[in-house]
Amino acid sequence: xxxxxxxxxxxxxxxxxxxxxxxxxxxxxxxxxxxxxxxxxxxxxxxxxxxxxxxxxxxxxxxxxxxxxxxxxxxxxxxxxxxxxxxxxxxxxxxxxxxxxxxxxxxxxxxxxxxxxxxxxxxxxxxxxxxxxxxxxxxxxxxxxxxxxxxxxxxxxxxxxxxxxxxxxxxxxxxxxxxxxxxxxxxxxxxxxxxxxxxxxxxxxxxxxxxxxxxxxxxxxxxxxxxxxxxxxxxxxxxxxxxxxxxxxxxxxxxxxxxxxxxxxxxxxxxxxxxxxxxxxxxxxxxxxxxxxxxxxxxxxxxxxxxxxxxxxxxxxxxxxxxxxxxxxxxxxxxxxxxxxxxxxxxxxxxxxxxxxxxxxxxxxxxxxxxxxxxxxxxxxxxxxxxxxxxxxxxxxxxxxx
Length: 402
Hints:
By secondary structure, the protein is an alpha+beta fold.
């Protein structure tokens, strides 16, 4: 069993715990590699943030080392990086836009694991190959940083949730076929864990369904064709809920109290929100979690405004997978009650496709579902949400012959 699954399950079951940092001297590198972060690993302000980074202007942080940034201890990292946000933004720019794809060998571990829309990838050579493939398909590709949520330190590793808008034109061949010559715009969130200048664990949620759609292809048919090739998988996300049964006997799912304030209660707020909304099906709890004018941006270019539209979206997913149970597998955040919070949430679950909806007639097949959500919280309500999940991977699972 994956060590991160075990510790994530413990973290989820004790949502209110305030775990503290473990001494690096007493913990082996293998254990540190998958330890969950404690509340004391969360930045209490935005002094190191993408917003602070942008103040110097594009030329400041892409053309040369940005002198205006707050520095932080980063043992083992190249000295030119002032902080973890600087590291994430500039290695992304160098690899993807400057086309120094070989820099992956310096910034990813040889045994790195990457979970994406269609399964688990091992090793940086696979990452290099996939990056070359995408750059060939979209030669003018740009990855515009929308947000970087970070936590951790040089001892327990740095955790980053990097939201980007991918822009470009499909003028090259790809695994989906010949060039469509169409413009592309899709959301992506990559959650990475790094230490000593290397990313060794990554969950990246591409909006692959939107990519296929914008290329002028039928998403469902493409998923069916890919599933027939049987080159994908494993689909199972790196998630904590080993018990996929939502109900047992005459019992019913708990309805935890959603804290009135996030101050000192971020974990409780997130776990209670997901448990009430997704697992108990108490959709009215959304009025307690979200601001009335919530703006949502998500997979396959979805945009919703207001709690009503977002509630309809959540219900549509559960209607298609009536027994779905969601677990919150990783949480970290930055901020405070005065300035607000930015929260990264990685989640996963299993559900059987037994209901009608956008994915066609029920197939009865189980699907592993996982995604990454970012929340902007102000005045104890979520005012903006970005969620990317493995929609193309779901379609492959329920439309394949296996």
